[in-house]
Batch of 4 targets.
Target 1
Amino acid sequence: MATKSDMTFMKSDMALMKSDMTLMRSDMASLKSDMASMKSDMTLMKSDMTLMKSDMASLKSDVVSLKSDVVSLKSDVVSMKSDVVSMKSDLGSTKSDLASTKAELRAEMRAGFADAKRYTDVLFESLKDDIRIVADGVATIAAKLDKRA
């Protein structure tokens, strides 16, 4: 049989156990509250993850679109480069044509000036002859007028 001191000791142990149980219940309630909070946080994170996945899909689509645009721009630049090379070639050809036309025009102008000079020389000769004839006529009239006077 248990003695009185054993019984007191057991009562004391029981009181400690009861106190420990109360603390454990309190801890369990706190853990339960923490778990509920964590569950709520997990739900929010799951929602955030879903949004992030959606955003990532949208970004991926945008990147694919940008890549397509870059490829298109690259093609345009290559085409423009080809056009510039073609224009440069055309410009060289045009420059050559202009130089040739310039030389032809100068030759034609020189020939035209030479023809105009010859024609002007002929006109001046004819004009000199006409002036001589008029001068001879004026001299003859002056001589006749001197004889009458």
Target 2
Amino acid sequence: MRAAEAVLEREGNVGPVELFQELRWLSPFDVKCWRKGDDEHRTLEPWIHVGPAKFQSAIRCFNDWAQGRGLRALETPYQRQDPQGIEALQVSESGDPQREKFYRTHYVPADLSAGQSKRVAEKLRKAPDLVVFEKVSEEGNCHECQAELGQGSYLFMEKGQPLCLTCADLDHLVFLPSGDGTLSRRARKQSALSAVGGAVQPGAEALRAAGIARKRRRTGPGGSRVPG
């Protein structure tokens, strides 16, 4: 399993989702949409582009490879964050517990220390940050309340639609001054909610339609957006 070895060497751990990306059976774009909770990507398995026989063969080979290498298994759930909290993500269409466990299991070297294993597990478990964008056009409205989103205002993209920060339940966040990493870290420790600034990626039609461009700000702890 050269693909699994490559991921393990590069990332220090490997799981089925990462393996299928390495094999180019699964697009990083589809994984990103799934992690964001897009309606078309409520589960990830339908986006794995390989036939059933080859898929089952890969699963067997991967399990045999991990066992033969004496790797240690870490079971870590995939999660996404929204303004209301943390949501567990489902990979398979059936939601079968054993199948979900297979996808949640990552493998790390057997000689990894307990502390290193804990850090790897925390990293894998961490949900991607919420992202807010700065409006650069003068036209556009919140999808939910229809409030006008003027140039320079901030919005949150939910399932491909722009929301004002009030409708996104993010209007209580506060800005932190830029350049103070210590303040950012302290604030993040004290708050269960934070968001970061985002940038439009090529092909992000929904963002461009909402009139959003590159935003050179990052949102700090406590949900604060930090100019940067």
Target 3
Amino acid sequence: MGDPISLIMAALVAGAAKTAGEAVSDGYKGLKDLIKRRLEEKQQPPFVQGMLDANKDQLEDQKNQNFLKEKLVAVSVHEDVEILNAAKALIESMKSSPKEPSSQRNFSNQIQAKNIALQQGDGTTANSTFN
């Protein structure tokens, strides 16, 4: 990750994963906003800016990365000190942020009732009859 454009691309791809805390999320949004502003100043079409909002899978696709990288280089994003600093800060915040798998969910329920039916899950069905 020696060259500036690779650093920016790594920050964008890693930030798109959104598996870390609020500081990382804020840093990712800040980086995207700076890049979008630069693209807008250079009159890039809206779909290029929209690529910054792609999900993790889309940004991990090599063709999409190459296209976005080409567009970012064309407007000299990699020469913008503010953008480079934001990308570095995002990478650093990810290193210091605790890792939490995106599939991990924490549930806490406290229920007090006489007759109750509780159902939890995706796409499940339950029928309950209380007498």
Target 4
Amino acid sequence: MNNKTNIEEDIKILEDYSYALATISSATEKDIRLSKAIENILEDRERLEKENEKLNTEIAKHVYFENIQMKELNAENNRCAMFAIKNNELEKSNVKLKTELENKRREYQETYKDTREELKELQVKANKYDSLVEKIKRKIEIHKDYLFNLSNTNNLALDAHFREKERYAISILQELLDTKKEN
């Protein structure tokens, strides 16, 4: 038998004994006091059992609600952990994107710098080209003037030869000038 069954049997024995003492006509005052003490103890025990049952019910409710709160806290902690993980991932992604952006910015700056240098070089070449064109135009004019002012010499063959050379020089310079204009 277990302990609870023994206690219940002992209580039953005390109740029976107390009832027997109270109902016996030959009971002494000591027996009546003993019967009253047993009744008081049994009543206190019954009251304590009810209080204990109420407390157990309150404890069970409290434990139940604490378990619910713990589940909610655990769920909230899990959400917070997931947010922290996501936030960490976003921060890493942000750092990566900032690095990529900075690299692209530097790359574009270098490209811009290179392009400006190329433009400066092209401007220098264009200035040289313009200068060369002006020189060619002046030489054409000089050769045209020379051809126009070429005095007639006594030697017609020599005179025709110089004219032919001047025309050839003018055509070469004109061709060079036209080629430069196309480029």
